[in-house]
Amino acid sequence: MTTQLLAENILTDAHFLSAEDSTGSPQGSQASGFWGQPAPASANTGKFRLLAQGDASDFSYSGTTSATGAVDKTTLIDSALVIYGNDYFIGGTITITSGAASGQSRTISDFAQVTGTITISVPFTAQIVSGVTFTLTIPYATRAIEVEIVAAGDAGNATFKWNHDGATWLGRNRPQDGIWPGSTLVHNNTAKRISLCQAANGTLIVAYNEAADSKVYCKRSINNGITWSAAIKISNSNRSPQRLLVLASSRILIFMDTYMSYSDDHGLTWSAEAQVMVPETTGIPTAQSLYGVIELSSGVLFAAYIDTGPHLNGALSSDSGFSWANINDITQNVGASSIPACAQTENGNLIVVYSFSNSGHYEIRCKISEDGGYTWGNSITVLAYASFNVERHSPTTIVDIDGRIFVFCDRTLIAPENAKAITATYSDNNGTTWHDAFTVASVWGTDLQTPTVCMADGHQLSCAYLDNTNSDVYLVRRGMWEAYSGNDSPVAIEAIPQALVCGAELVWYGYGGMIGDAWTFEPEYDFCMENLIADSPSRPWRTAADNADYAVVMDLGANNKFYADGAAFFGANVRTLSIQMNDTDSWGSPSLNQSVSFDLATGAIDAASGNFIQDTSLLAGYADHELRGQYVRMTSGTSSGVTWKILDNFSSWIVLDTTAAISVSVNDTFAIFGTKAAVAFTANVKRYVRILIETQQTAENYYQVGYAALGRMVSLDRGIAAGFGLTRQANVEMLRTPAGGMIPIQGAEPKNVFELTFPNTDLGRRQLIAMVDYLRGQNVVLIPDSADLLDVYLVKATSDAKQTHKFLDRYDVVLTLEEVL
User: Fold this and answer.
1) What pLDDT, in 10s, does the model give residues 567-583?
2) By C-alpha distance, which of 817, 792, 816 is closest to 804?
3) Greatest C-alpha distance within the chain
4) DSSP helix/strand/coil, 815
5) Which helix (H) or strand (E) holds 421?
6) Residues 6+ apart with CB under 8 A from 387
7) What is the CATH topology of the domain spanning 59-138?
8) Which residues sit opposite 520 in a β-bridge?
9) H/E element holding 764?
10) Do strands 380-383 and 190-198 pair parallel, antiparallel, or not at all (unpaired)?
């Protein structure tokens, strides 16, 4: 048999033109819309690929005015809106819901952040006074978002501006500028430290120790910190919440002194706490609290802690924080009140920032490790103790979207103010040198302590701190979108999604951008375009309905056409579709019109009983449970054309996913079809590609395709024999309980892992290496046997291609491919 690999070349650089029915009219959607691939301007000469993603939905806020507006009836004031930047709401709609102007709607013409004042172009019929309720909306259906590169360079160096009304450009206010605006009260009557994070679903969470009962609670905000939920208990014990950490898996960990708890539902509920301590090591005293815990790019957790020395040490955890191993002494004699924080810099180094007792007065220092924490460089002064009685404590760190490292701390001004403020500094060379301090929050005579900071929405730095004088927790922020006046935003590193408005997010890929590069995108398609191109799609493309022709067109552009002689589809729920290619966006007689069938088998009914159907001869060729998740479509009889999903199969019976009586009879015919298929065809080089799904009924009542790939089909010179290195991953993790039981934690669906081995002398080795070099982490379609195009897998290379010695001058080259969908 012959093994084939299909290198993807679809959608990553193409613009989606339309989603239309057989008459060319646009089709609707299911519940929510999605953002289309942004189209580059004709002058675009850079190499950035800008991907739009996110659920398209109206921005909506319901509020109450906090002060009386202007007598000319053109303004209303809500101080809660100070968390948003100047001009951000221009083009939105204000609707008054109480008072003399109730029911009136106006378009927003201006917004001033400093007071939360909204200006409208046409006055209301009555002055908007304090206590009037209103709704503020920005409808996504009217948003045509424009993005333009202001400064050239790679991600982190290049900068951009954007607008959502066609005229008002927005940028990002600089985190290092002045007092931070947007102060909101999170909670009063608290004690000890606090901690802040943004959950994977966008919810802000603040954890604190309640002064009334000395227990640990958290509050959640789903509107960026304007309002906060009721308290949610985390621990019944009197602990100090040192660190909230959101893992890549979306699990949230909270470290409280020497205890840990976790949440898998974005902070709504929390597990029982477990004690987590670094085991005592010879010559190293017992650990105290784990402070600056971070998740490294490898998935391993790193933490810094102070032992009873008091010395600063590092520790690693490879099981998500449940157990720890000491790795090294970072520095000694830091002071009994020292607190550390950690970060992984843009260049991969580790940095630990800590308060250090300098002759009894605390200042902020840091150390850098270039080898994962095993050795550390010299001490670097971040913020020195000043001779005029300025001390600094409780540092916390965050890496900004451009790789810049910020350190926040509280500053004690012993005289004459005798109070603390929240200050910060930053490094733009991975911690080697630091800028002068700037003030984040300061209230005369008030003791502000223990800042904690997180990145919100991919552009905003949010800082919570404790007002120790009044036992209150406040939140301030910078990095908000505001009127553009040279304050362009950095293009985010690490493909960090930068949220704009109405659910739109920017993700930057590629090499670099050129000044003047520009993109526009709209919510022009109401199906999920993003997940046809995402590396690991988590949800499929769906239409609003079935039983109609449906097509989506892609345009790669005049200068960079598709080359393809093969295509593959995954996660589909249709029996057939067509892949078409053409020189123009006209599909009467396309150059390529290749049908794709997902049929696994056909049969005829021997017997039926409720939602069970039987075909003795056909089912003899399938193992029990093998057809679960596939589809049955009737091809004759009363129910001809009806499709059901298969719940299970055993013996000679198929169990259909239906509670209604099914009208099938003996000898009615049916087809069983799956969710994936590949097809090979004569090579084409064309600008346009279209996926056409012709009228058919589906089990879900909408068409679905999870992923599509189009490109060059490579037939490997050496085939893979049956039984070649195949591992089946169940993707079920067994959580071991303290009592010795095991709880299965369901992960993704089962996945295959393939190991391909090629003798060094084969052309297959060269093909393999060329494919690996070309893909560089992208998806690839694996077809183990070219005679069976239904046995097809979407995979990634998860290891380097390794050459292993066999004997004499003979070597094998091995590559591991892991299924991603």
Assistant:
1) 899 889 999 999 999 99
2) 816
3) 96
4) strand
5) strand 419-427
6) none
7) Elongation Factor Tu (Ef-tu); domain 3 (2.40.30)
8) 39, 146
9) helix 763-775
10) unpaired
Q: What is the pLDDT of residue 501?
A: 95
Q: What is the 3-state secondary structure (H, E, C) of 670-710?
A: EEEECCCEEEEEEEEEECEEEEEECCCCCCCCCCEECEEEE
Separation between Cα atoms, residue 768 and residue 760, nearest integer Å = 11
In this prediction, what percent of the chain has a pLDDT beyond 70?
A: 85
Contact 171/459 with Cβ under 8 angstroms? Answer: no
Q: Which fold has domain 184-479?
A: Neuraminidase (2.120.10)
What are the strands of the beta sheet with 241-246, ordered from one edge? 241-246, 252-256, 259-263, 274-275
- Closest residue by Cα to residue 35 from 506, 708, 509: 506
The rounded distance, in Å, linking the Cα atoms of 10 and 689 is 9
Cα separation, 335 vs 58, in Å, equals: 52
Tokens (6 digits) for 383: 């913020």
Closest C-alpha to 199, from 159, 244, 160: 244
Q: Which amino acid is at 788?
A: D
Residue closest to 453 by CA, chosen among 305, 292, 315, 344: 292
Give CA–CA dist 799/817, Å, rounded: 8
291-350 pLDDT tens trace: 889 999 888 999 998 887 788 888 898 888 888 888 878 888 887 778 899 999 988 899
CA atoms of 489 and 479, how far apart (whole Å): 9
Residue spans per domain, the chain: 32-55+144-173+484-525, 59-138, 184-479, 599-674
**Which pLDDT belongs to residue 284?**
47
DSSP-assigned letter for residue 41:
P
